[in-house]
C-alpha cells in the first residue's frame, strides 16, 4: 500500500472516529441516565428511539430484500439464457439435507409434508426461484 493511500485511509478513519464520538456525546446528552427522568419522558424517549430503530431497520431491510430478490431473479434469467450453468441436482441435494436436518431438529420427526413441497419445487425450479425472488422484492417494496 502506498504512503498516500495509507495516509488517506488514516485520515478517513480519524474522521469516522470523530463523527462517532460526536454522535456518542450527542446521544449521551439527550438520553444520559434516563432512569432519573419522569415516566412520561422515558416513554417519549423510548418511543422515539424505537421508532427510529424500526424505521432504519425497515429501510435497510427493504434494500437488502430487494437486492436479494432481484439477484435471485437475475441469476435465474442468466441461467435460462445460457449465460451461466447451475447444477440443480447438487443444489437440491444440499437443500434436501438442510431441510431434513432442520425439520428433524424442530419436530423430532422425519420429514412429511415438507417432502411434498420440495418435490413440487424441484419440478418447477424456474418458477420456484422467481417466486422466492418475488417474495423478497415484495418485502422490499412493502
Automatic annotation (TrEMBL):
GO terms for biological process: autophagy of mitochondrion. Pfam families: FUN14. Keywords: Membrane, Transmembrane, Transmembrane helix. It comes from the Eukaryota. Transmembrane segments: none annotated. PANTHER family: FUN14 DOMAIN CONTAINING (PTHR21346), RE45833P (PTHR21346:SF0). Belongs to the FUN14 family. This is Putative membrane protein. The lineage of its organism: Eukaryota, Metazoa, Ecdysozoa, Arthropoda, Hexapoda.
